[in-house]
Write a structure and sequence with these properties.
There is one protein chain. The chain has 22 helices and ten strands. The chain is α/β, with parallel strands linked by helices. The longest helix has 29 residues, at 367-395. It is globular, with a radius of gyration of 27 Å. The protein starts with a strand and ends with a helix. 27% of the residues are buried.
Length: 504
């Protein structure tokens, strides 16, 4: 039978809970009931349990603190919270610390039974999953974490898998941290494995963490903590010691800290954006230090195909003179990031671009020297891109045909299948060639180009948003709004307002 612990500072509540429902009918045994949360904690330290039912407001220790400490002992225990107060902050705090449900006093036996039934289902599903997959459970969890950071699951499927794995989705400070081994380092895979073990031991009692290996030399981690002193900055300050202990000069890129599990994919994208810095002398980067406006990002992130090198360099020079000196380094890093994205077709930057990164200017006090480096880097990127495009065009004219078809935009029915039929090719072969030559999967490229086209229409026309969505080829405005915010970091209407202000 499953084991349950009840703690409430009011004795009549504890006694009432014992008879409120038929516990044995849910395959539960009440193994410990008390009015003292400290005693409940002592019991749970020595005895495994499947469910904790606790009051929020108790004199010896409040329920939130009890939940936090019990979670450190038993991360998979299910938790049901009771309170006489219908207070949203109580609810929010309890859910962040892993409570599965929240019931108000006086208790409704039907509501209690419904909650216990749901908890039993989750426990059974986790047990069945563990029995079915056995040693492959780690792989299942890794795939879930990867789908989380990349936002590749539907909402319902994501929630279901999170419940199966006992993953708490109600914390309020998720940050994606990516650890990478420098290219060319000997025994990189083995050292990354040792780093993984080191981090697991380091995070016990401090961070709630979820890992997966994106490549053998790239470890992705989602961290969170209910204690304000365990920040990303605190973690990075400990990593220098890790580099010494492991004799391993790993690089760390952190995304921005987000307060909702749905925004974790944005933190991942921002951490990934600066992974190219592993090819520089820098040891780490925190994304939230960038802080450039949407207007500045719009100047930097212009497609090289749409602007000449001279005009682009001229606009960058002007940008550096209009932003505060404190933003010069952030501006340069954004330019480097964009240049890498314009020239990289695989996860590894072009060797010529890598050479330029190794000589990065880390001192932003000398603007002329900084601009000289930026010009050299941009020139290198334009040359690399031109060379690659020449090779691609000569080898695979079908790629150009796909790109031209995508740029028709208003064709909502365009797909790899329809294009392959038009070009008399097999869809999978065409998709493979397109990915090989552009670095994009077809659907990702189609979505990216449609978003850029829509952004241009918002900036340069007075068309209604619903007409822009239609003209860009999106079939749903809801889908467009969600994708646009992911791509540009702001809602379409807010983006349009900022672009108009920029022109004024």
């Amino acid at each position: 039978m499953y084991q349950a612990v009840i703690v409430d500072d009011e004795p009549f509540v504890v006694e009432g809970m014992k008879t409120a429902i038929d516990w044995s009918g849910f395959n539960f045994e009440l193994c410990y009931c008390t009015t003292n949360p400290c005693q409940a904690l002592e019991f749970l330290e020595k005895h495994p349990a499947d469910l904790l039912i606790t009051d929020i407001s108790m004199p010896q220790m409040n329920g939130i603190e009890l939940i936090r400490r019990v979670r450190e002992i038993n991360p998979l225990i299910s938790i049901l919270v009771l309170s006489a107060y219908d207070n949203f902050e109580y609810v929010r705090s309890a859910m962040r610390h892993g409570a599965e449900n929240y019931l108000l006093k006086p208790l409704d036996p039907d509501e209690l039974a419904e909650s216990i039934s749901g908890i039993v289902s989750h426990i059974q599903e986790r047990a069945e999953l563990s029995d079915t997959y056995g040693p492959t459970m780690l792989t299942f969890r890794s795939l879930f974490i990867e789908s989380w950071v990349k936002g590749s699951l539907s909402e319902d499927e994501f929630i279901t898998r999170a419940q199966l794995l006992g993953v708490n989705l109600y914390l309020n400070n998720y940050t994606v941290v990516i650890f990478t081994a420098p290219s060319g380092i000997s025994m990189g895979k083995e050292k990354m494995s040792r780093l993984f073990d080191y981090l697991l031991s380091l995070f016990v009692g401090t961070y709630i963490s979820h890992f997966y290996f994106e490549t053998p030399t790239r470890l992705v981690c989602i961290i969170s903590s209910s204690n304000d002193k365990y920040t990303v900055e605190n973690l990075l300050s400990q990593m220098d010691n890790g580099r010494v202990v492991l004799d391993f000069p790993f690089f760390i890129s952190t995304g921005n800290t987000v307060n909702d599990y749905e925004e974790v994919s944005a933190s991942y994208r921002n951490a990934s954006k600066y992974l190219f810095l592993q090819h520089t002398p820098m040891k780490e980067i925190i994304y939230q230090d960038m802080g450039l406006s949407v207007a500045a990002a719009g100047i930097i992130e212009q497609d090289y195909a749409d602007i000449s090198e001279g005009s682009y360099a001229e606009q960058l020079d002007k940008l550096f003179t209009t932003i505060p000196d404190s933003k010069h380094m952030a501006c340069m890093l954004s330019i480097l990031s964009w240049g890498v994205s314009q020239t990289t077709t695989e996860m590894q930057p072009d060797p010529e671009v890598t050479d330029m990164l190794s000589s990065i200017i880390c001192d932003a006090s000398d603007l002329n020297r900084l601009l000289e480096y930026v010009h050299s880097f941009v020139h290198c990127c334009y040359e690399v891109r031109a060379r690659k495009q020449k090779i691609q065009t000569a080898a695979y004219p079908c790629v150009d045909a796909v790109i031209n078809a995508v740029h028709e935009f208003s064709d909502k029915d365009i797909s790899l299948k329809t294009l392959a039929a038009r070009l008399n090719m097999h869809p999978s072969y065409l998709g493979s060639i397109f990915h090989q030559q552009t670095g994009y999967y077809f659907n990702d490229y189609l979505n990216e180009e449609r978003l850029k086209y829509a952004a241009g229409l918002m900036e340069n026309t007075d068309m209604k948003l619903k007409d822009i969505v239609d003209k860009a080829g999106f079939s749903s405005q809801t889908y467009f709004n969600r994708q646009f915010k992911r791509r540009y970091g702001t809602a379409p209407n807010a983006y349009r307002r900022e672009m108009k202000l920029k022109k004024v």
